[in-house]
Amino acid sequence: MSVAPGWYVDPADPETRRYWDGEGWIGTPIPVDATPPEGPPPPEPEPTPEPEPATPAAGPAAPAGTPSEPGPATTWPGQPGHPGQQPGQFGGTPGPGGHPGQQPDQSGWPGAGGQQAGWPPGSGPPPGWPYPTWPGQPPPPRPHGLPLASFGARFAARLIDFGIVFVLNVFVNGFFVYRLAQEYATPLNEFWRRVEAQDTTTDPLPPAGDQAGSLVVVILLLATALWLAYEVPSMAAGGQTFGKRLLRVKAVPVEADAPLGFGRALRRWNTLGLPTLLWYCCGLGLLLQLIDSLSPLFDHPLRQALHDKRAQTVVVRLPRTPDDRADTPGDTP
């Protein structure tokens, strides 16, 4: 790709124009609103080098145009117009530092360390060339130096916790579930009798017992209270339930690696746990909990569930060795 000589908006300073001679920028910039002259700008006088004090080890002063003191027509390695360099051959894919040809240092941060190759400081790409960007996806964030927990690990930890809460409900709610089954025994028995006898009558089934509605409310209240008592205190103290400890995942605040505290842990649980009370409404609560549980799959880059967003928390994977926690590219403060 070759760019014709002429006056163009300077990519390094959009408020000015400079003259592109087909190989590089030359001359002094002019305001972008000013009418450029015909042809290239007049050549600038070469600066007179200041005399250096004579010393026994002093050598001759470097002439203008050398890399230590570039002259007006100096071209830089990697800049369009450099001998043997064609426009479009800037050393491959632009590096993360913003200069084509620049290789990232070991830390992987854009422009951190390393040698600045490409266009000289204060310059930019020729007119019409796009600015370089990240070559692909940026690295994933590591909150407080820890990798984010995978959805599979979070889901498995949640299943373990649900199993523990279910066992608690068997002991605490077992009697009320038995009483509820007795209240619904009459309509259920009639339903199965009609199925076995292939009875096609349209008569309504007998109603459930008078205490069926109250028992459902009691069961849901106890189940919600048991879940609250199991999860909130352990999350407030250490950011982990029993399931999270087994899977080595932990919930931490976004802003600091610190305990959640009771208030944040309660806000986090409310979004997922309180809809249990709405199971009575045609399973609406169960639908809300399903949406919340699947929401990390669609959140980027921190993979936060809806209850994480409300409490401003993020779930990370704990290191197995101290080296796993070393800061790496993409760390989030």
UniProtKB/TrEMBL annotation:
A Pfam family assignment: RDD
Keywords from the named record: Cell membrane, Membrane, Transmembrane, Transmembrane helix
Composition bias type Gly residues, residue spans: 89-100
Region called Disordered, residue ranges: 1-145
Spans through the membrane: 159-181, 212-230, 272-291
GO cellular component, one term: plasma membrane
Occurrences of domain RDD (ranges): 148-311
InterPro entries per the UniProt record, alphabetical: Pra-immunoreactive, RDD
Cell compartment(s), UniProt: Cell membrane
Lipid bilayer topology: Multi-pass membrane protein
Compositionally biased tracts (Low complexity): 55-88
Biased composition (Pro residues): 37-54, 122-144
Chief location: membrane
Protein name: RDD family protein
The species this protein was found in: Micromonospora craniellae
Lineage: Bacteria, Bacillati, Actinomycetota, Actinomycetes, Micromonosporales
